[in-house]
Design a protein that fits this description.
Blueprint: H1 5-13, E1 14-16, E2 24-27, E3 31-34, H2 36-48, E4 58-62, H3 72-88, E5 91-93, H4 100-107, E6 114-117, E7 131-134, H5 137-144, E8 149-152, E9 155-162, H6 171-182, E10 190-195, H7 197-200, H8 204-213, E11 221-223, H9 228-236, E12 256-261, E13 268-270, E14 278-280, H10 281-284, E15 291-294, H11 302-312, E16 322-325, H12 330-339, H13 341-348, E17 351-352, E18 372-375, E19 391-394, H14 397-406, H15 417-421, E20 436-437, E21 465-472, H16 479-482, H17 496-500, H18 511-517, E22 521-525, H19 537-544, E23 547-552, H20 557-565, E24 569-573, E25 587-590, H21 593-599, E26 601-606, E27 612-616, H22 621-629, H23 632-638
Parallel strand pairs: 3-4, 3-6, 4-5, 6-7, 9-10, 9-12, 10-11, 15-16, 15-18, 16-17, 18-19, 21-22, 22-23, 23-24
Antiparallel strand pairs: 1-2, 2-8, 5-20, 13-14, 21-25, 24-27, 25-26, 26-27
This protein binds alpha-methylisocitric acid (MIC) and iron/sulfur cluster.
Alpha-methylisocitric acid binds at residues 37-38, 65, 119-121, 361, 485, 532-535.
Length: 640
């Protein structure tokens, strides 16, 4: 029986378990990446493991999120990461070098290898044929220390691409189509594997847009074959030696198949406030816009930005529109400067930002009150832009650029064909790796500024929990709700006590105060709780506030792992209807917890209503041990 590409890479890296769908497997991690806003916690945890040098092939620490530096906190974090990286054998990518996923695919991505990153968009690496997975910082720290990474052996979805995209339609529209079909929770414990004739016509940057935004499906990852296009890209990056051909066997067996006819695809947008709220551009055409933001790890490659520049050339951004462009990397910006495309953008009236995440994570450029913002990014959760009542539409660079000129949402088909016709992926990239700092092996003093506070400690699981319901939230609550990030909060990613005062405030501003007053409690949630980012802070802040358990209809993969890693019980309603019976302030009793966790089924008594409900723990035996120990670090200490 043939193997899928995913199975082939997993087989090469399998350390624990067998490739049986739904069972837990441990895989060897070749490479890791961190970024600054999850990195400080990851490195504090790595330091606690007492491992002198990382054991991976390559580990890279990027600075790309917190770059506004409105106070000393950001740069304190950068210096901590730079010094800790140098000490432990980690390559440091200086601020300004670019967004981790864009730079990683340019300079380090290697077909057939594994990559674990403390950022949910790490699957971008699947565009170059890697098995690239996002995780919490602690899991990345363990991988840097040589430990395997555990996942549920995923189901594998075959996405067959037929035909060829029409001018004005892009790879962004392919992933929007996949999101329309599968939704933001359709990818949990699944890998999306792209195959078929249509793959050949997609360049590596096109593919990376798709694998990047595959994160929005909740998928473990997405992957493309490594073929002639991959070889061309690696050769152009002067890394031809990193190429190996890789694809699925012709008789590989998939768990589900879907076919996308590229010829039929049309430009689309993800409408507010979810990446799966897909609408055809035609339906939105003519809507007045206030802002256009082009960039992010989804669409900031040289190829994308040259198309944008070509559309803008000779035009002027509409009077009432602010257009901001953030190039994905120093390589991209440098080449745009050299080939004159940067001048075309500036001339049209674009505001050029530095290479980084910027507006994607609300680090500046928040839209106006009730503003309409068109973004080439991957997430449009309510409030993520920094403006609570703004409406954010996610679109391709083509839609963004043409709409910026017209001042209204505009279908690019027939309007940009000529402009973008000549734009191709570079045959030779400008390679000058001078913003990477290599670890030298010398003695390094790790510098921790006053903003860097220790991560909260966890304790062994207790026999009973008697606590109140502190909040009841609906389906698809994101980690942006649980631990909001914006220009005001991102500087405090190393300071959990400070951040905890903002925990879940987009859902209920009183939550942190209530949690503190009652000495902790229980969160009740709907489906897909914790979707979105990998930020461990969405578990660490509740931990700090004394949250003992979350009872939900279902959980997103990374967030569930982060809860378990920190000793918080991720309980699932056995009967979903019981969600309706729990209300804010209800007093809950969980008794005989140790026995219940062992059996992976517990009884929750609602002392307020007198009703008993059943909840289950969908965890592996390894995770059970972690829950008993009160989290991963405690478990590691116990097993020493
Ligand atoms: C995001 O896009 O939400 C982030 C910011 O990159 C996060 C990481 C973080 O919260 O620091 C992610 O995607 O994991
Ligand atoms: Fe940065 Fe946005 Fe990408 Fe997250 S999604 S890594 S914030 S550019």
């Amino acid at each position: 029986m043939g193997l899928t590409l995913t199975e082939k890479i997993i087989k090469e890296h399998l350390v624990v378990g067998e490739m049986v769908r739904g069972t837990e497997i441990g895989i060897r991690i070749d490479n890791t990446l961190t970024q600054d806003s999850t990195g400080t916690m990851a490195y504090l945890q790595f330091e606690a493991m007492d491992v002198p040098k990382v054991k991976t092939k390559k580990s890279i620490a990027y600075i790309d999120h917190n770059m506004l530096q409105t106070g000393p906190e950001n740069m304190d974090d950068h210096i901590y990461i730079q010094t800790v990286a140098k000490k432990h054998g980690i390559i440091f990518s200086k601020p300004g070098n670019g967004i981790c996923h864009q730079v990683n695919i340019e300079r380090f991505g290697k077909p057939g290898e594994t990559l674990l990153g403390s950022d949910s968009h790490t699957p971008t690496g699947g565009g170059i044929g890697m098995l690239a997975i996002g995780a919490g910082g602690l899991d990345v720290a363990v991988a840097m220390a040589g430990g395997e990474y555990y996942i549920t052996m995923p189901e594998i979805v075959k996405v067959e691409l037929k035909g060829k995209l029409q001018p004005g339609v892009t790879s962004k529209d392919i992933i929007l189509e996949v999101l329309k079909r599968f939704t933001v929770k359709g990818g949990i414990n699944r890998v999306f594997e792209y195959v078929g004739e249509g793959v050949k016509s997609l360049s590596v940057p096109d593919r990376a847009t798709i694998t990047n935004m595959g994160a929005e499906l909740g998928a473990t990852t997405s992957v493309f074959p490594s073929d002639q296009e991959t070889k061309l890209f690696l050769t152009a990056q002067k890394r031809e030696e990193d190429f190996i051909p890789l694809n699925a066997d012709a008789d590989a067996i998939y768990d589900e198949e879907t076919v996308i006819d590229l010829d039929q695809l049309i430009p689309m947008a993800a409408a507010p406030h979810s990446p799966d709220n897909i609408k055809p551009i035609d339906e939105l055409e003519g809507m007045k816009i206030n802002q256009v933001a082009i960039g992010s790890c989804t669409n900031s490659s040289l190829y994308d930005l040259m198309k944008v520049a070509s559309i803008l050339e000779g035009n002027t951004v509409a009077e009432e529109v602010s257009l901001v462009i953030s190039p994905g990397s120093k390589q991209v910006l440098n080449m745009l400067a050299e080939n004159g495309y940067l001048a075309k953008m500036i001339d049209a009236g674009a505001r050029i930002l530095e290479c980084g995440c910027g507006p994607c994570i609300g680090m500046g450029q928040s839209p106006n009150t009730k503003g309409i913002s068109l973004r080439t990014f991957n997430r449009n959760f309510k409030g993520r832009s920094g403006t609570t009542d703004a409406d954010v539409y996610l679109v391709s660079p083509e839609v963004a650029a043409i709409s910026a000129i017209h001042g209204v949402i505009t279908n690019p088909v027939g309007k940009v064909d000529e402009a973008v016709a000549g734009v191709e992926v570079a045959k030779e990239f400008k390679v000058h790796d001078n913003m990477f700092v290599a670890p030298t092996g010398e003695e390094v003093e790790v510098i921790k500024g006053p903003n860097i506070k220790p991560f909260p400690k966890t304790e062994k699981l207790k026999e009973n929990i008697h606590k109140n319901v502190l909040i009841v939230v609906e389906d698809n609550i994101t980690t942006d709700h649980i631990m909001p990030s914006n220009a005001k909060l991102l500087p405090y990613r190393s300071n959990i006590p400070y951040l905890s005062d903002y925990c879940l405030t987009p859902c209920d501003p009183e939550f942190p105060a209530r949690a503190k007053e009652q000495g902790g409690g229980i969160i009740v949630a709907g489906h897909n709780y914790g979707q979105g980012s990998s930020r461990e802070h969405a578990a660490l802040a509740p931990l700090y506030l004394g949250i003992k358990a979350v009872i939900a209809k279902s959980f997103a993969r990374i967030h569930k792992n982060n809860l378990i890693n920190n000793g918080i019980l991720p309980l699932i309603f056995k009967d979903e209807k019981d969600y309706d019976g729990l209300n804010l302030g209800d007093s809950l009793s969980l008794d005989n917890i140790l026995v219940g966790v062992e059996a992976k089924e517990l009884i929750v008594k609602n002392e307020t209503t007198g009703k008993e409900i059943k909840v289950v723990l969908d965890i592996t035996d390894r995770q059970k041990e972690m829950i008993f120990a009160g989290g991963l670090i405690n478990m590691m200490k116990e097993n020493k």
